[in-house]
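Lecture notes, continued. The same structure-token format from the folding unit now serves as the input rather than the output. Read the line below as a description of shape only.
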């Protein structure tokens, strides 16, 4: 069975799909066979981004498919080195189902308490429902200053969860790259690519 990385959140706008795209792009470039399961049937953000990518003649990042049921997506893990699950922008029973089988569950969050608190609540719920703490990580996104980064890291760590190294800064270059079907590691700017990587 391939590895499964799930990107889930309690709310939209925290760069969940942005991070999933970056991981998918880099995994594909490294030679892994990648399947992305977009579980947001209403928006299909990841699938739409991949369509734009292909229309602009950029390399495919692997197989991308929209799924209505988490189980159908999970069944794909046997056929790929890496299954990336881009969950819907809200927690649901599918989120719990995904978290139970994922090798790593990433909860993106911005630095404000309006974003941190729901992310920590979701992490608590996942842990209470059987996801090991070691398999849950928060990722800081859309940050601007070092002080807000430090404060957010402290809040996450005091809540008992790991926070991934680095952070995704709020930069127009990242948005422009994604508008064109590129990931956050494929911008026109070497320094932005290195920070995202």
């Amino acid at each position: 069975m391939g590895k499964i990385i799930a990107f889930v959140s309690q709310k939209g706008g925290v760069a969940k799909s942005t991070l999933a795209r970056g991981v998918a792009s880099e995994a594909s470039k490294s030679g892994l066979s990648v399947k992305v399961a977009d579980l947001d049937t209403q928006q299909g953000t990841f699938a739409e981004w991949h369509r734009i990518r292909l229309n602009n003649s950029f390399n495919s990042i692997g197989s991308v498919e929209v799924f209505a049921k988490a189980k159908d997506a999970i069944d794909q893990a046997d056929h790929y080195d890496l299954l990336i699950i881009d969950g819907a922008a809200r927690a649901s029973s599918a989120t719990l189902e995904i978290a139970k089988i994922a090798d790593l569950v990433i909860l993106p969050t911005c630095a404000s308490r309006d974003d941190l608190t729901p992310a920590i609540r979701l992490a608590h719920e996942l842990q209470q429902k059987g996801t090991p703490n070691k398999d849950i990580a928060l990722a800081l996104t859309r940050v601007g200053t070092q002080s807000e980064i430090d404060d957010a890291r402290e809040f996450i760590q005091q809540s008992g969860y790991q926070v991934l190294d680095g952070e995704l800064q709020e930069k127009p270059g990242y948005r422009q790259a994604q508008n064109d079907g590129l990931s956050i590691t494929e911008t026109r700017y070497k320094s932005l690519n290195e920070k995202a990587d």
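Point for the exam: Residues 3-196 form a domain with the Rossmann fold fold (CATH 3.40.50.300).
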